[in-house]
Amino acid sequence: MSYSLKAFRGIMLVALWFSLLFLPFKGPLGAIILFASIVVSISLFRALRRVRFRGIKLSLPYSRYYTLFLLIFLFLFPLFVKDYYLDVAILSCIYVILTLGLNVVVGFTGLLNLGFVAFYAIGAYTYALLNLKLGLGFWQSLPFCLMASTIAGFVLAIPALRLRGDYLAIVTLGFGEITRLILNNWDSLTGGPNGLTGISSPVIFGLSLGRLNRYYYLVLFVVIICYIIIKRVRESKIGRAWLAIREDEISAGSMGVNVTLYKLYAFSFGAFWAGLAGALFAAKMQFISPESFTFIESVLILCMVILGGLGSIEGVIIGALILVILPEVLRGVQNYRMLALGIGLILMMIFRPHGIFGSTMIKKASEKIRVSEGANRI
Amino acid sequence: MTYILEVRELTKHFGGLRALEEVSFKVREGSIISIIGPNGAGKTTLFNCLTGITRPTRGHIHLGERELTGLPPHEIVRCGIARTFQNIRVFKEMTVLENVMVGEHIHIKTGLFQTIIRNSVFRSKEREAMDKAMEYLGLVGLEEKAFIPAISLPYGDQKRLEIARALATEPSILLLDEPTAGMNPQETSEVMEMILRLQRFGKTIILIEHDMKVVMGISETIVVLDHGVKIAEGPPDDVRRDPLVIEAYLGRESLVEA
């Protein structure tokens, strides 16, 4: 009994904390609704875990419950919300794909890429051009978009991989700027600064995905696929080789990892996802211009990766969500929102320099061992 | 008498510095050979040349019939030479098990497509690799710590992990760069036993070592380097009495006094 009381107090505290945080932005009514919904949902979640079905305890492991609830929530989400929220959700999904892609390059392999947005732009423009000039649909263009961005990643990687650290960052930054400048100045093909309009939405079985809620399901599906693939690749020989390169290049080479080849893989694999995100972005917006692919965009995606925790798949998803959703939530304080975001990032760097989900486990484990070792010595 | 590795007139210059000057020696299959010499004698440079990390200025390295000179490190591993490092270079933020599995990299044959669909072939290969990695960890006595990050291992264990990781590449020749540096006598003798055990498994071992007890205790042949030049080679007892070696270690004076 005392245990459940304690747990309930915990839930109350969590709910109170979040509603207090949201009080300035959503007013007292919003805060109360948030408070109530958090308390109810967490209690429900805990209660459901104990449900016995005809005497048989549901035997899903703890984390599976989270996944199940999360999926149900994500699928039902569009039924209850206004278009504005769907719009933010779709944008979040696109950024999640981008972030997962960049995480492969920066987080897994440890190569600082400041021109990631170039691959995003290449994906978007490839779809836009194929659609407008050749009249190809989304699904026919998609393979070309993916090929274009992957090949661009590969081609950039060849000269870039001779360089390390800061120098690599500068070359990738240059690549991003060159791509943007080409798009901006090749008027006859890309429409220059005016961009391209009238890009069509994808169609599945004669069903246009132009409506926001349908499009939401498409991007959600892509995010899930992307998550699964990246997770699987991470937990294989390829992922281990990437991490080994990040940790120690010389050592990785001495273990038989072809360092150059695997860096090429990482660059191309990351670019692949950026191309996919670009095509989805173009199809959603139905309008693209070089404005959307500036250097700041690269920095933003990098911030998402760093905020979430370099190399942590779940972490960078959270990072992307925070950096897309927070500015929207903070719209209430218009002029100060970027300031608040900046302060937030600085505080992060001070208190959690490894990101929200980065390396905390590792630190805790090492502290524990050091303590026990010390005890043994005494 | 079969020689598995032959080094001929290996020379490495860093600008004006002659790190190695025409060093030649042969290694018999299944033997333990030690490279010794004062600091800066070129021992680690020799290892770096053997494993392809630095390219020698001149000279040849033959593994059996095969010429290794100038091959990149990952190719040399495929030929069957693996190494550990003097200053530990484990993959710090990966688990101990994953560290060893990186060592198995060249023996795991799964492609990207298999990885993505994660079919039964992929799963069984991954399972097999994991079991093998656990075996290697068992060999160095680390299987209990398989799932903790390598950075949280104490120093001695990290050295052992490096050996397990090198063994995972299934080398015929194992290069150990100061495996007992910084260890207490107890740990040192454990490592010595482990090296002898590896020799019984048929591995050829080349050792850089400062601890004379280890060197004299287990090596069949000792190669002595000084200022990049080989000044002596032979069984421990001969090398111990060699005047050139005594001079290199203790200076000319001591030789005169003796």
Overview of the structural elements:
The complex is a heterodimer of chains A (378) and B (258). By secondary structure, chain A is mainly alpha-helical. Chain A has two domains: 58 residues, no CATH class; 279 residues, ABC transporter involved in vitamin B12 uptake, BtuC. Chain A is 76% helix and 3% strand. Chain A is built from 15 helices and six strands. In chain A, strands 1-2 form a two-stranded antiparallel ribbon. In chain A, strands 3-6 form a two-stranded antiparallel ribbon. In chain A, a hairpin with a 2-residue loop joins strand 1 and strand 2. By secondary structure, chain B is α/β, with parallel strands linked by helices. Chain B folds into two domains: 168 residues, P-loop containing nucleotide triphosphate hydrolases (Rossmann fold); 82 residues, Rossmann fold, CATH 3.40.50. Chain B has eleven helices and ten strands. In chain B, the strands form two sheets. In chain B, strands 6-7-8-3-9-10 form a six-stranded mixed β-sheet, with helices on both faces. In chain B, helix 3 crosses helix 5, helix 3 packs parallel to helix 6 and helix 5 packs across helix 6. The longest helix of chain B is centred in the middle third of the chain and has 21 residues. Chain B is globular and about 70 Å long. The two termini of chain B are 37 Å apart. Classes of the chains: A mainly alpha (378), B alpha/beta (258). Chains A and B meet through helix 8, helix 9, helix 10 and helix 15 of A and helix 2, helix 3 and helix 4 of B.
